[in-house]
Amino acid sequence: MNLALWIGAGLLAAVALTGGITKTFVPVEKLAAAYGGGWTGDAGAGPVRTLGILELLAAVGLILPAAVDIAPALVPVTALCWVVLMLGATMTHGRRGEFALVALNVVYLALAAFVAWGRLGPESF
């Protein structure tokens, strides 16, 4: 179970890192032209950059606290925050009719819920 939770957290951290780097450093015009990025053109640069920074922090928060054993309770808190973020992403893509991305967001949400449940319960630090 512990291994599955580490793998889940690692996968989520990789997704968060990729999304965070993209949203933080790629111009919004280029993001808006990419598949699934149309919402960024509607949102503007400020909110997109803010989400990117939050995703970078999530990537760190899913791994680093447990890896260095400093405030490991931040891992399930970060996973719960990721659940909230994925709820927002699911609603945004759903409103835009991007149902393949809705399904992907639901998978990420379920994985984050699993990590949060596991780290708050049976395999807490």
UniProtKB/TrEMBL annotation:
Main location: membrane
Keywords linked to the UniProt accession: Membrane, Transmembrane, Transmembrane helix
Membrane topology according to the record: Multi-pass membrane protein
UniProt keyword Endoplasmic reticulum, yes or no: no
Highest taxon in the source lineage: Bacteria
TM spans (from-to): 56-87, 99-120
Subcellular location: Membrane
Protein name in UniProt: DoxX family protein
Species in which this protein is naturally found: Streptomyces millisiae
